[in-house]
Design brief:
By secondary structure, the protein is of the alpha+beta class. Helix content is 35%, strand content 22%. Helix 2 runs antiparallel to helix 18, helix 6 (115-131) runs antiparallel to helix 9 and helix 13 (456-472) packs across helix 14 (494-506). It is elongated, with a radius of gyration of 44 Å. It is found in: Membrane.
């Protein structure tokens, strides 16, 4: 250590008659000659100027290299890099929640009772029929017109429709056919029953007259003109039979458009009318049946979501209808108590197994026999025409997470046993400044999924709902409302539907994503899945069917599916992020660079601090030093005067 460090402050006393400036110069020189900073002492200990100049150059170069290395080390620290440590835990992982749904959201015969759904399915049928015999030039330049110019009844049962007919000579009534007539003059007008899809009775179009009726009921029949009533309701009156039927739309529907299997022939005046009607229904210029089906699904889901949840639940599948058999960990399940209803906008009635967060279930061993096994009956004979596949939809998620089977789901077909082997991966992420994740103690207050754990998918849907409320003035019925005062969007309003489509598409742009930051949670459980399948049931198994079918195995292959969900191994992974380059690593690397280029260490820094404190102490004493010097000189003068007077005596 430098002699300057151990030097006492008393050595700088004014008795030595050195000024503070001189003391500081001596202190600096002593420090430079004795310091452990290599190069500095070499500059001050040599008497040769060229050697001193050489050491000055070498010292400056080393200082520059050291600072350059410091900048690289600091940049590495500022990157906040992290590493992922993988830990394998050999114990039974908690079993996740399993949500199962039918791929068909609603029963066809029940959904047809909802007027909006029946109209959507009829329009879908018309679009599919056209796509089989389409020429794209026929749809160019078609415009829309209102389908509801006149009054309408929501639960109307009967309405007049045009139909091609087969009439028996001598009889007034005709038999309706789904083919297209040559002209409307050759067609009949029938009483169409919206509930069962029948068209009867039918009479020649020449025997009907368009008129204005004074009063109509919601069944569809009206009082004849010039009778009791004060309304002006459009209707069609049967002249020979003496009754009138309410006309719900400005254009009388054609039965060959929504029930027929062929479009009108080329050259027929009805073909152009068919094209215009198709465009009005929203399927203009569409010939791809996949795109048509997708659009019809979206329309149906949106209209179904506008119904009350209990009304939607009544149109779907019951728990005992969908789930026929169940076992977990080799033991029989209680289907009534262990499955919780979850109404999904895309799949209707879904049921969640192991939904209670307070109840912990775990498999005693790995393998299909110790997981969840379900036999599910989907009844494909009552599927909607928009449902493209038969089977079930499965979502594997945490107990506190909201299931999203449409986004994070797996499909399992009928006629096979579908095995889903799962593995748990527990992820622990670092928050700021090393990462960007949401900590558990900082929940999202704007989430529309109250009571559920935060998830990025729920965050995105919440952003969408808030945007729809702000831009369209109503809430999308497919998702929960953030507050009760918001009204649901009317799925029958064309302007509202256009707003939902337009604003939903804008949400995916980068500009709008800045206002919707959905980050990953800091702690998350992820389930990875492997899938395998085998034909089911086998020919050797003895099965029984509810309909007492002779060939029960064939019946189950068409309408039922077997599901197995299990852990593949009795262990799970814990992925834990940790900082790759900490503050301690930064100091160690900087110390190494300083030692390499300057020969310095932490002791050199302490030595410099002692020198700085000592120099500061000397600089702060000049006033006291002058006072002591004056007193000392005064005492010396007094002593000298006394000595002179003594000698004289």
């Amino acid at each position: 250590m430098s002699r300057d460090v151990g030097k006492s402050f008393e050595d700088d006393s004014p008795c030595k008659e050195e000024a503070p400036k001189t003391q500081i110069q001596h202190s600096v020189r002593d420090f430079c000659e004795q310091t452990t900073f290599h190069g500095v002492n070499m500059i001050f200990t040599t008497s040769l100027y060229w050697v001193r100049f050489l050491w000055v150059v070498v010292s400056l170069v080393c200082i520059c290299l050291c600072m350059y290395s410091f900048s690289h080390v600091k940049d590495k620290y500022d990157r906040k890099e992290k590493i992922v440590n993988v830990e394998l835990v050999f114990e039974s992982a908690p079993f996740p929640a399993i949500t199962v749904c039918n791929l068909n959201p609603f029963k066809n015969h029940l959904a047809r009772s909802v007027p909006e759904i029946s109209e959507t399915l009829d329009a879908f049928h018309q679009a599919v029929v056209y796509s089989n015999d389409a020429t794209m030039d026929e749809l160019s330049g078609r415009g829309r017109r209102s389908l509801n110019d006149g009054p309408s009844f929501k639960y109307l049962q009967y309405e007049p429709v045009y139909s091609d007919c087969s009439c028996v000579p001598g009889r007034q009534e005709c038999i309706a056919q789904t083919s297209a007539p040559r002209t409307l003059e050759n067609a009949c007008i029938c009483n169409y029953d919206r509930h069962d899809g029948s068209a009867w009775p039918c009479y020649s179009a020449q025997t009907w007259e368009k008129s204005i009726c004074p009063e109509c009921n919601d069944i569809g029949f009206c009082n004849v003109p010039n009778t009791t009533g004060s309304g002006n309701i459009p209707c069609y009156c049967q002249l020979e039979m003496g009754y009138c039927v309410f006309q719900p739309e400005s254009r009388v529907r054609r039965i060959w458009e929504f029930q027929g299997n062929k479009i009108p022939e080329k050259g027929s005046p009805l073909r152009k009318e068919y094209m215009e009607q198709l465009t009005q229904l929203g399927y203009g210029n569409m010939t791809d049946q996949v795109a048509i089906t997708t659009q019809a699904k979206e329309k149906m889901i949106l209209k179904m979501s506008g119904l009350h949840p209990q009304r939607r639940a009544a149109l779907g599948y019951g728990k005992s209808e969908l789930i026929k058999m169940c076992s977990f960990n080799g033991q029989q399940c209680n289907i009534d108590t262990e499955f919780k209803l979850h109404i999904d906008p895309s799949f209707g009635n879904c049921y969640t197994f192991n939904a209670n967060p307070e109840k912990k279930l775990a498999s005693s061993r790995a393998g299909p026999s110790y997981g969840l096994r379900l036999m599910m009956f989907v009844n494909s004979s009552d599927y909607l025409p928009t449902t493209e596949a038969t089977g079930v939809r499965i979502a594997i998620h945490g107990k506190e997470e909201c299931p999203f089977p449409d986004t994070f789901g797996y499909s399992a077909p009928t006629g096979v046993i579908s095995s889903f082997g799962i593995s748990l991966r527990n992820i622990n992420r670092l928050p700021q400044p090393y990462g960007n994740c949401l900590q558990k103690d900082n929940p999202q207050s704007r989430s529309i999924y109250k009571g559920y754990k935060y998830e990025p998918e729920g965050c995105f849907r919440s952003c969408y709902q808030y945007r729809i409320i702000a831009k369209c003035g109503c809430a999308d019925p497919r998702y929960p409302k953030p507050w009760k005062r918001s009204a649901w969007c009317d799925s029958t309003n064309t302007t509202t539907l256009n707003c939902l489509t337009t604003e939903g598409a804008k949400l995916s742009t980068k500009e709008n994503q800045k206002h919707c930051k959905c980050i990953q949670p800091c702690q998350q459980d992820q389930y990875t899945t492997t899938y395998s399948a085998a034909k089911w049931p086998s020919g050797s198994i003895q099965t029984s069917c509810d309909n007492h079918s002779k060939d029960c195995n064939s019946y189950l292959r068409e309408h039922a599916a077997m599901i197995e969900i299990y852990y593949e191994q009795m262990s799970y992974e814990i992925l834990r992020e940790s900082e790759s380059y900490s503050w301690f690593n930064l100091m160690a690397d900087m110390g190494g660079q300083a030692g390499l280029f300057l020969g310095a260490s932490i002791m050199s820094v302490i030595e410099f601090l002692f020198f700085a404190v000592r120099t500061l102490g000397i600089a702060c004493k000049p006033r006291r030093w002058r006072q002591k010097t004056e007193l000392l000189r005064a005492e010396e003068l007094n002593d000298a005067e006394k000595g002179v007077s003594t000698n004289n005596n």
